[in-house]
Amino acid sequence: MFNKIKAWAKQLKRKIFILYFAYRDERVPWYTKVFTAVIVAYAFSPIDLIPDFIPILGYLDEVILLPIAIWLAMKMIPKAVLSDCEVKAEQLMKNGKPKNWIAGLIIILIWVGFTVWASIKIFQLLN
Q1: Using CA atoms, how far apart are residues 87 and 121, in angstroms rounded to an integer?
Q2: Structural domains counted in the chain
Q3: Residues 6 or more apart from 12 whose CB is under 8 A from it?
Q4: Domain carrying residue 97
């Protein structure tokens, strides 16, 4: 069973790399580029939207939401682009994944904004 999970994770990683190259390709429509870029940025981000330390929900994004988003993006990208990007992805997998610190910063700002908003609401309720 562990080998199946490991193979699934490697396949998911490969698809993220394919999307990484696909969103930069000129043959991909702009709306697909935007959707795909968000998925890739989130996947490469060192910070999760839902932190992993939250029981059950912490892994919801990696186990359910991210694979669904990847599947949708793959369906939106032209087949010719996918085949070209698969070759590039295989090469990149040998070298390691890039980090997207901008996406990480955006996610931190979302959490800070949510925390400030929640604090204001709680303060208003107490007064």
Answers
A1: 51
A2: 1
A3: 66, 67, 70
A4: 2-126
Measured between alpha carbons, how far is 89 from 98 in angstroms, rounded to an integer? 12
pTM equals: 0.64
Q: Provide Rg for the chain, Cα atoms.
A: 17
Instruction: Classify residue 60 as exposed, middle or buried by CB count within 10 Å of its CB (0-12, 13-18, 19+).
Output: middle
Structure tokens at 50: 């839902």
Residues 60 and 6: beta-carbon distance below 8 Å = no
pLDDT tens per residue across span 64-87: 788 888 999 999 999 988 888 888
Q: Is 61 in contact with 125 (CB distance < 8 Å)?
A: no
Among 72, 78, 67, smallest CA distance to 27 is for 78
Among 96, 113, 108, 112, which Cα is nearest to 44's? 96
